[in-house]
Write a structure and sequence with these properties.
The chain contains 6 helices and 16 strands. It is of the alpha+beta class.
Length: about 290
Amino acid sequence: MSDRPVVSILTDYGPHSEHVGALHAVLVDGCPNADRIDAAHDLPAGDILAAAVVLGRFVRLLPNAIHLAVVDPGVGTSRRPVAVRLSTGGVLIGPDNGLLRPAAAEYGATEAVALDPGRLRVSAPSATFHGRDVFAPAAAWIATGARLTSLGDPVNVEALVPLELPLPTSQAGVIEATVVALDRFGNVALHASAADLEAADIQVGDGVEVTIGERRLDAVVGHTFADAAPRSGLVSIDSHELVAVSVNMGDAARRLGVHRSGAIAVLRSVAGVAESPPPHQHVSPY
């Protein structure tokens, strides 16, 4: 295994944006021997929740890496730029706006600092491009071996801004959960798991209706896309162990009118709901 530092880069800049190239340029200038991985740049603009979900997935794949994450609608405001050391040995770098908190909680934050541009040797950072002028320089310094405490003042890891994410609820025949991610195929991932399907007594082969707002999609519960007829809806457990809503050879996000995370989805068994017990809730790690 290579002993070269690894930096993953996650943004909402767009995959063909010159802003992505600027981050790479700063990293190359500050630490030429670092391996750089583009985690994703096609997230919905300003979608902190979706970015947090993807960030957590990359920390799982690269627990020792430096993860530079910039989805920052509050850039230039009083929100803190931070770096967070994880118990895995990895580091998260980005705005303290909720983006880093899920991964910090899941992988055990051991220390954090509020990044100081002066200590990063950045004389006049832009008010609107902290990705280039604060976060990428910090990632480069850490890749060269710099201690977090040399880049800013300590921050209590428990004081990192939390991510607001409603808990999923399950009762007989019904699940209500938050949309947490969309992909280019139109698959819609929910903040719910196989345990929520089980708690609602919704099983493989069952018919369900999925509603988001006023839109509805009829679907079948299955394992793979082929379990649903072409252009028909599917509810399954995706590769990240989340409940996902899809359309075989189609676009569930478009059918349901979903453009970003945060919407509330309701899955209801087409058999109807009898007298329901109190809702079942799973504790969110966020």
